[in-house]
Amino acid sequence: MASHIVGYPRMGPKRELKFALESFWDGKSSAEDLKKVAADLRSSIWKQMADAGIKHIPSNTFSYYDQVLDTTAMLGAVPPRYNWNGGEIGFDIYFSMARGNASVPAMEMTKWFDTNYHFIVPELGPDVKFSYASHKAVDEYKEAKALGVDTVPVLIGPVSYLLLSKPAKGVEKTFPLLSLLGKILPIYKEVVSELKAAGASWIQFDEPTLVMDLDSHKLQTFTDAYAELESSLSGLNVLIETYFADVPSEAYKTLTALKGVSAYGFDLVRGANTLDLIKGGFPKGKYLFAGVVDGRNIWANDLAASFGTLDSLEGIVGKDKLVVSTSCSLLHTAVDLVNETKLDKEIKSWLAFAAQKVVEVNALAKALAGHKDEAFFSSNAAALKGSDHRRATNVSTRLDAQQKNLNLPILPTTTIGSFPQTIELRRVRREYKAKKISEDEYVMAIKEEISKVVKLQEDLDIDVLVHGEPERNDMVEYFGEQLSGFAFTVNGWVQSYGSRCVKPPIIYGDVSRPKPMTVFWSSTAQSMTARPMKGMLTGPVTILNWSFVRNDQPRYETCYQIALAIKDEVEDLEKAGINVIQIDEAALREGLPLRKSEQAYYLEWAVHSFRITNCGVKDTTQIHTHMCYSNFNDIIHSIIDMDADVITIENSRSDEKLLSVFREGVKYGAGIGPGVYDIHSPRIPSTEEIADRINKMLAVLETNILWVNPDCGLKTRKYSEVKPALKNMVAAAKLLRTQLASAK
Fold first, then answer.
1. Which residues does 5-methyltetrahydropteroyltri-L-glutamate bind (predicted)?
2. 20 to 30 Å CA-CA from 34: which of 7, 435, 438, 613?
3. 57 carries a ligand binding annotation
4. Average pLDDT over residues 463-480
């Protein structure tokens, strides 16, 4: 069973190429020194792939700067401002095009499709004199061959090259770049014939523009180009590689009908729809290079799922015509996990950098050939089960188990967490901080406050109680002070709105939880009542988004560390007999990137972080979350994916907007508590007003999943407002229970 890698990172596992380039540019080392570093990198990459068992190993994916610039050099398309006089292009002209020099500016750089990689844009026009001016592709093929590795030389395809170019300065903006095809194909033919002469049996043309929306004229250019190359390519296996998205159906038809082509590569990670096209018809006798290992991400592959995909493709194209590949070049991922010595072991088991992806590709190819490495597959499945962090059963099964345990009425009542913080309470905390009162006196004062809050809720007949959070200053700072890796300022205030300021903690190091943070207070509160007492935690994404975060590692890594710390706390609360635990994610929506293209990735790791915190609890433990100000509708699917048992929402100022999501038919099976009154206002709503709101909610939500609660914590209100409002809230819930019972 064959395996293939589309391309590989060039920088080196410890950025060796970066340092060699910068040293050369600074005049501190010679061209020979730079070439030596590059040759060592290339040979180690080829050897690594050969040792891993990869059959189709790419060459010419190495570059000193950029692969499109390499193609420009190959075609001799040097803009006149660089005063090139012909001959083989050397470092001076090459780096002048890339970086400019003392007298002329560099060529333009722009994003490579939707990645974070940038390429050097060719500047073309009717007067460009193309000539074969860089033999890099052939030289690298021969270099690998001399090391005993027969590679697949990779070239950027002629049509994509032109489509990615721009008219040079002084050329009409409307100049048809594709009209230059006839001028560049003779050079492609020369390169191909030299590769053939050197012994190449395969050649790869990257034509990623086939995933774009191309009109029929552009598609026709592909047909023309490969028809023209057909005779030069005879005797070679030709692979056309596409990546980064689905290939649209018209482009698929064009691609699979190209003359002289024997293999097609598809990104099956970002191009799931392409699978349907393949199933709908694949040309007989051709090879399918199936890109099932993600080249753009650092997560371990779901080998079992990939194997399933490959297995179904094998039925379509035949065993000997299916090749396991990466979704695109591995250029877009990190190089080697081996060098991550400080990374948390558990997090590490979820990851695969380029070197590990090579191993995954080979493992899949072997498995398809009937030599499955069971140990590798099962440790992968275990890491993934660990890395996905979902609870063992689905939410409706869990809600049944929880109801048997908690025995709540329909429309259960609760509050969001905090109770009013009186002047007296703030004084106690301040004096304790200033060491004016002893720890014993402080604990006694807080216990007294908790017992008042518990008694008040019992008198009001609330179903699920809270301890009121009298010991807490701020929902992020309180946890940050007890986690390692956090630092705090005294005057690092930042305006939040109006006159309100917040003091974000500073996350400077690895986050962990030295000891339990809330267990003492929650279990103390639970011992004061027979009713369920909610444990109260702040979620990892909110802690992240409301802090200043270290910038020497990706935000998601810090978030996972916080999540693992909160997970320890959740499990300790459960052990201490707390059966309802609320993990607030007030700021999940806040972290959403502005760019649409980056939002899905953020939501994936943010939601994943939340799931990590509670994936280890029993079915009977009920996980709540609370969200604020969320412009919920656009991220509702991510919210469902958080898989909480109950979600309470601050929405009382935008009831209609929130409920419209459910009216539009989004299926939500978990418990939900849209706030029934606005705590940001001193106004006390009447029983009828609250009952009316609950009725509106019942029109779109099932009776058995609706909770009744205020829309946020009560910390900033006075008891003279809180008592009557909660009394009316409970009365409204009871009124509706009676009405629902008699309606039955």
1. 18, 116, 500-501, 546
2. 7
3. no
4. 93
Confidence category of residue 272, pLDDT binned at 50, 70, 90: confident
Q: Would you say 73 and 133 are in contact if contact means Cβ atoms under 8 Å apart?
A: yes
SS3 59: strand
Distances (CA, A) of 616 to 123, 373, 392, 570, 677: 57, 29, 9, 9, 34
Place of tokens 């259960």: 412
**Mean pLDDT taken over the chain:** 93
What is the spatial distance between Cα 502 and Cα 543, in angstroms, rounded to a whole number?
Answer: 13
Whose structure tokens read 């030069």? 232
How are beta strands 109-111 and 118-120 bridged, if at all? Answer: antiparallel
Round to whole Å and give the CA distance between 33 and 42.
14
Q: Give me 692's structure tokens.
A: 């009316």
418 assigned ligand-binding residue: yes
CA gap 237, 233 in Å, rounded: 8
Q: Are 512 and 470 in contact (CB under 8 A)?
A: no
Residue entry with tokens 């890099």: 136
Residue 16 annotated as part of some ligand binding site: no
pLDDT-derived band at 153 (thresholds 50, 70, 90) equals very high
Those residues whose C-beta lies under 8 Å from the C-beta of residue 209, and which sit 6 or more positions away, are 159, 160, 163, 164
Residue 666 binned pLDDT confidence (cut-offs 50, 70, 90): confident
Catalytic residues: 680
**559 annotated as ligand-binding:** no
Residues 387-429 have pLDDT tens digits of 678 888 899 999 999 999 999 999 999 999 999 999 999 999 9
Structure tokens at 507: 């996350």
Record the tokens describing residue 310, joined without a space.
């490959």
How many other C-beta atoms can be found within 10 angstroms of the C-beta atom of residue 721? 16
Q: Which two tokens stand for residue 26?
A: 């600074």
**CA 348, 351, 357 angle in degrees (round to 5)?**
135
- 208: which DSSP letter? G
CA torsion sign, 698 to 701 to 702 to 704?
negative
Residue 635, both tokens: 């991220």
Question: 648: Cβ–Cβ under 8 A, 6 or more apart, which residues?
Answer: 414, 416, 624, 625, 626, 627, 672, 673, 674, 675, 707, 709, 711
Sheet holding 622-627, edge to edge: 534-538, 580-584, 622-627, 646-649, 671-674
| Per-residue pLDDT, 695 | 93
